[in-house]
Amino acid sequence: MDTLVFDIETQNFFTDEGIGWNNFEALKISVVGAYSYLQNKYFCFEEKEMEGLADLFKDAGKIVGFASNRYDIPVLNLYFQKLKNRADLNLWARERVDLLDEIERATGERISLSRLAEANLGVKKEHHGSEAGGMYERGEMEKLKAYCLKDVEITKGLYDIYLKEKAFLIPERATGKLKRIVLGPREAQGALI
């Protein structure tokens, strides 16, 4: 079975007029980026290519993301459930690793992907997620895909550290001083919703 690292970008967001918080049904995917460990390859799919994305996900035994349990999985799972003959592709039933959830369980706090990447990989994100909707609206699909795939690449790099060390360097909020945080034993994430 494959392990996929993934990230989604949406055309709209909860704060947009007429959407509202946790209204996942109203969110529309613009692109989904993924990395397959089995194929050692990155992929990017537009909203119109969800069947191809579903084909990639059907063989995934484990899915990995950053804040994915709170955003990416609810949105993508709704898309998959609407596809013909894909109702059995339930992402909540897969083994999931949400790196932000892991950090929050260990520290009681959240951190941005950019700050975590800078502390552990020496790279910063070039754009903020809030810019993705504008890229989509302006038709900058290649720029949007590159942005999404960069987030996947960063998340994969962090997941590789997670697998090897079960720890991250986390900057303290007040001082910025890096502290090594060991991540504790994981609960069975397949049961989390």
How would you characterize the overall build of this protein?
This protein is of the alpha/beta class and 193 residues long. Helix content is 38%, strand content 22%. The protein has a single domain (2-191), classed as Nucleotidyltransferase, domain 5, CATH 3.30.420. A 5-stranded mixed β-sheet has the order 3-2-1-4-5, with helices on both faces. The longest helix has 25 residues, at 141-165. Mean pLDDT is 87; it is low at 187-193.
Topology record:
Elements: E1 2-10, E2 29-36, E3 41-46, H1 50-58, E4 60-65, H2 68-82, E5 95-98, H3 99-107, H4 113-121, H5 132-137, H6 141-165, E6 167-171, E7 178-182
Parallel strand pairs: 1-4, 4-5
Antiparallel strand pairs: 1-2, 2-3, 6-7
What distinguishing features does this structure have?
alpha/beta; Nucleotidyltransferase, domain 5; five-stranded mixed sheet; 7 strands; single chain; 193 residues
- Write down how many β-strands occur, each being a DSSP E stretch of 2 or more residues: 7
Question: Alpha-carbon distance between the termini?
Answer: 23 Å
Helix content: 25-40%
Pairing-aware structural class of the strands and helices?
A: alpha/beta
Biggest sheet details: 5 strands, mixed
N to C succession of SSEs:
EEEHEHEHHHHEE
The fraction of residues in strands falls at: 15-25%
Judging by the overall fold, what is the CATH architecture?
2-Layer Sandwich
Full CATH superfamily name: Ribonuclease H-like superfamily/Ribonuclease H
What is the total domain count? 1
> What's the rounded overall pLDDT mean?
87
